[in-house]
């Protein structure tokens, strides 16, 4: 499949929060030299969602078309690249629409459906008789951005299907690079790495919420300290990629007889470290199950 890099048409099927963030990113790219979006076609489930999306992308209204899901097939037919951005539990219904599978077969497909492997994408497209060794294999990239895509600070993991060309892998990297960092990883590592990227933020936010509860319990209003806690945490986290191991940092902070070591000992007593590990392993197992749940 050849794609004209200066005249790309992209269809976003099921354009929710992450789909909207990616759409906004590629319409106003940080890097406009490699690829350019000529037209963007988005489909959504309801009329209120259509209104929301048109407002969110109003700066680019001359290049966008927003319609409801009954136009999914036409959107795919008119696109070079198709981003599948709907929830994974909807996939059977979306692919069951007459003409959808057929329209998808000669497109370059990006999927941000959680837990859905590239093999499952090919099975959905070519049917139950799909043979991974046959010529009927989808050019597809499975990806998992996190919610920071909304502010173009996401970390996105992606992995291509075996049939995907080098040029299309580069195109996928460019798309996800417009909303943050994009990292290619092997699919065998995808489930655990994806939940780390997708879930770690929500687990850390739970920890932040607990810290703020302590402030409230001590008589301080939450808004007065929220930014202090968040910015302090962000600053500390940035020391890790700068070369400091988390354990070493923790030791440096925990002075003998000090407050930090007392707090850390309480967390160890409560099993917080192993609770984080167990939570991520459970999420990874759920991710592995999603492709087999039809």
Automatic annotation (TrEMBL):
Say if the entry is tagged with keyword NADP. yes
Tell me which residues bind NADPH: 72
Q: Which residues form the signal peptide?
A: none
GO molecular function, a single term: pyrroline-5-carboxylate reductase activity
**Which named protein is this?**
Pyrroline-5-carboxylate reductase
Ranges for domain Pyrroline-5-carboxylate reductase catalytic N-terminal come to 9-115
Is NADP a UniProt keyword of this protein?
yes
Q: What's the family?
A: Belongs to the pyrroline-5-carboxylate reductase family.
Under the heading Pfam families, the entry gives: F420_oxidored, P5CR_dimer
Ranges of residues in domain Pyrroline-5-carboxylate reductase dimerisation: 187-290
User: InterPro entries under this entry?
Assistant: 6-PGluconate_DH-like_C_sf, NAD(P)-bd_dom_sf, P5C_Rdtase_cat_N, P5CR_dimer, Pyrroline-COOH_reductase
For biological process, the GO terms are: L-proline biosynthetic process
